[in-house]
Amino acid sequence: MPGALSHLRVVDFSRVLAGPLAAMVLGDLGAEVVKVERPGAGDETRGWGPPFDGRGRASYFEAVNRNKRSVALDLRDPADLERARELAAQADVLVENFRPGVMDRLGLGYEELRERNPRLIYASITGFGRGAGAALPGYDLLVQAVGGLMSITGEPDGEPQKVGVALVDVIAGLFAAVGILAAVEHRHRSGRGQRVEIDLLSSLLAALANQATAYTVAGEVPRRMGNAHPSIAPYEPLPTARGELVLAVGNDRQFARLCEALGAPELAADERFATNAARVTNRAALRERLTELLAARPAAEWAALLADAGVPAGEVNDVRGAFAFAEALGLDPVVVVRDEEGREVRLPRNPIRLSETPPTYRLAPPAMPEREG
After folding, report:
1. Neighbours of 62 (CB within 10 A)
2. 259 and 185, same structural domain?
3. Residue 237: which residues within 8 A CB-CB, separation 6 or more?
4. Counting beta carbons within 10 angstroms of the beta carbon of residue 218, is it exposed (0 to 12), middle (13 to 18) or buried (19 or more)?
5. Strand 32-37 to strand 9-12: parallel, antiparallel, or no bridges (unpaired)?
6. Starting at the edge strand that comes first in sequence, how are the strands of the sheet with 244-248 ordered?
7. What are the pLDDT digits (tens) for 198-222?
8. ∠ CA 104-108-113 to the nearest 5 degrees?
9. How confident is the prediction for the chain on average, in pLDDT?
10. Is 318 a catalytic residue?
11. How confident is the model at residue 156 (pLDDT cuts 50, 70, 90)?
């Protein structure tokens, strides 16, 4: 069955995470993707390990490069550069994340390429835009720092913390994929391509959601609160007889059910805890009482009991436990593709489910290509 985007040809000039992820999403949905890499070295993430898989390939690279073919082109070589221009001239979508101005100097900039291919959708991902921030390096950790994410992550009296994955790159890659698909839809109606621009800082600020509007709407600057939520309680992990249990109680009905399941229904009527606003105000006292009650059972038992009671709760899993949990729910979180030598490669499944044109997994992340010619 053809994928939803099987009519699209994508040339991926990007490296590391945000751009490759955007291109992989298009590939999962059926697009033909050609990844352009430097001869001999390739994408930087080919060397970002350990961990490596059983074939000696970096798991980082494999995270965002399935459903692609790869070609090695030296963009400083005139013949290779012309080959790159030909790929762009034949493409529907181009994805790049060089520093602003690099593609223009190579003769691969948007203005030049659209003269050859007016239908081209040209997606550029930068760290801080093409203006005053053009020279700043777009590393995820740097953006987490200057973009405020680290200021709201970690314990109140501890140092700022980064998130445990390059979340800004992931968010920017997803925004880029959405922008590309919007441009594809516009082209259906107009016949014209366009430029799609995504920068990491703007992507992060948009993704700060309620923490951002606490500032923009209410003038409040959010601070680190550890695992507590600024506006909801109880909404955090709590210790049990064995292991940590997350409670994500979003309304008063759920809180009443929690109290009943814990054998303390009187807590729901206590004026300190009867409403969410009251619970937020009195969160320290609430946490102390809940910790006392949860000490009676291990986290696994509480998770099962509370699930039956309709209370959002769960154990704090490691990554192995997270995949096992998804598997137990029938979500099939892992897909298997075969590499060029026929060996199996296990990868996380694309979370998009489409009834008519589901994602497909046709190609394993490519081996390092030989230079053409």
Report:
1. 21
2. no
3. 227, 244, 245, 246, 247, 316
4. exposed
5. parallel
6. 235-239, 244-248, 313-315
7. 999 999 999 999 999 999 999 999 9
8. 110
9. 95
10. no
11. very high
Q: Which helix (H) or strand (E) holds 338?
A: strand 334-338
* Single pTM value for the model: 0.93
Contacts of 151 (CB under 8 A, 6+ apart): 160, 222, 223, 224
* Residue 373 reports pLDDT greater than 90: no
40-49 tens-digit pLDDT: 889 999 999 8
pLDDT in tens, 258-298: 999 999 999 999 999 999 999 999 999 999 999 999 999 99
d(CA 49, CA 300): 34
Residue closest to 73 by CA, chosen among 102, 38, 43: 38
Residues 165 and 286 in one domain: no
Helix or strand (DSSP H, E) at 37: strand 32-37
List C-alpha distances in Å: 343 to 11, 54, 58. Answer: 26, 10, 16
Show the CA angle centred on residue 120, arms to residues 114 and 126, nearest 5°.
90
Axis crossing angle, helix 252-261 with helix 299-308, rounded to the nearest 10: 120
Number of domains in the chain: 2
Q: How far apart are the first and last CA of the chain?
A: 34
User: Which tokens hold the place of 220?
Assistant: 């409040």
CA R_g for the chain: 24
Residues near 70 by Cβ (< 8 Å), separated by ≥ 6? 34, 35, 36, 37, 42, 366, 367, 368, 369
The residue range of the domain holding 158 is 9-207+332-348
Of the residues 12, 92, 169, 199, only one is catalytic, namely 169
Are both 259 and 296 inside the same structural domain?
A: yes
- Residue 371, in any domain of the structure: no
pLDDT recorded at residue 372:
62
What 3-state DSSP class applies to 81?
helix
Q: Is residue 214 part of a domain?
A: no
Confidence check: pLDDT of 131 > 70: yes
pLDDT in tens, 26-71: 999 999 999 999 998 899 999 998 999 888 889 999 999 999 999 9
Q: What percent of the chain has pLDDT over 70?
A: 99
Helix (H, G, I), strand (E, B) or coil at 106: coil
327 domain residue, yes or no: no
